[in-house]
Amino acid sequence: DGYFDKLMGIVESLDRRGTGVVLLAHSMGNKTVAYFLQYVSRRPGGLAWLEKHIYSWIAAGAPHLGAAQAFRATLLGDKFGLDAFVTDSEAIVFARSLSASPWLFPLGAQAERPFLMLRRGGLLEVRNPSAHVPHCNLSSSRNSVMLSVEVWWGEGADSECLTSKSSTDFAGGVAHFDPENNFFRFGGGPPELPKNATITVIVKEKGIKDDSSTNPIERLGKGIVAGIQLLDEAAHGRKGMGVPKANTDSVVLSQALQGRRHADGFVDVRLPITSVRGFSFRSRQQDAASHDYVTLQVRWLDYRALRQEWLGSKDFSPPARRRGGA
């Protein structure tokens, strides 16, 4: 499209004193500058033109060797922090529609001989969630259920919260979820599981159906309260568009992991609902006779078990050097 020819003209017009100009580029703009310099250098008299008109090039945040994030986004998608609004499939379609992404794929030795950096931290995995919640004040069985799983790592550490996709069906007060789209990984844990680390689940309702009331004023009030609750959830880092309806007690993870263990290390965990939110900001204690609960399968991998799982070895020591010749 003649862009580089036009750019050469702009550079010449700016170089009024004949001292050469300074090219300043940021991020992927540096890839464009590199392409421009190569383009000019291969033209007849191009090297002389560069010597005359280009004094220097300042590269700010230049991905000269590419960026692993670009490859990961193209492969797996990237929601850019909009997890509450963008689905996994939409994130993949969006990332793969960016025609400039291949410009940022890794180059050189890091692309030819990839390496893995493994943080000395543990990993908590959660799968197969379900919720038995017939007494949790959900407005309609035509709505869907979401679960926010929150893990607290102990004193002085941050908590992590991940929210499920909407339930695939919700009938008879029991919500089922697609296991493939609801596999949680909490990767911010310490190397070993803290004794006081806890797990809590918040039950949420997503949808506008309401079978519990026909009063328009009451419905309006519920809508206002729900909107404020959504903002409060977002402020606490709990993503998802579901309105909080109930939550389980905070259960110590080390105790929860004492249950029945599967062959792959996952443990069946049942968390009883201990408080229910009604048409207010307050929560009330759940009636013990209702027996509402959430079930999960949980697995903890410390950093050595994680290395064994991913790399096939627990050894962190560097390979021994050979003595003498090769």
Automatic annotation (TrEMBL):
<dbReference type="InterPro" id="IPR003386">
    <property type="entry name" value="LACT/PDAT_acylTrfase"/>
</dbReference>
<dbReference type="InterPro" id="IPR029058">
    <property type="entry name" value="AB_hydrolase_fold"/>
</dbReference>
<dbReference type="GO" id="GO:0006629">
    <property type="term" value="P:lipid metabolic process"/>
</dbReference>
<dbReference type="GO" id="GO:0008374">
    <property type="term" value="F:O-acyltransferase activity"/>
</dbReference>
<dbReference type="Pfam" id="PF02450">
    <property type="entry name" value="LCAT"/>
</dbReference>
<protein>
    <submittedName>
        <fullName>Uncharacterized protein</fullName>
    </submittedName>
</protein>
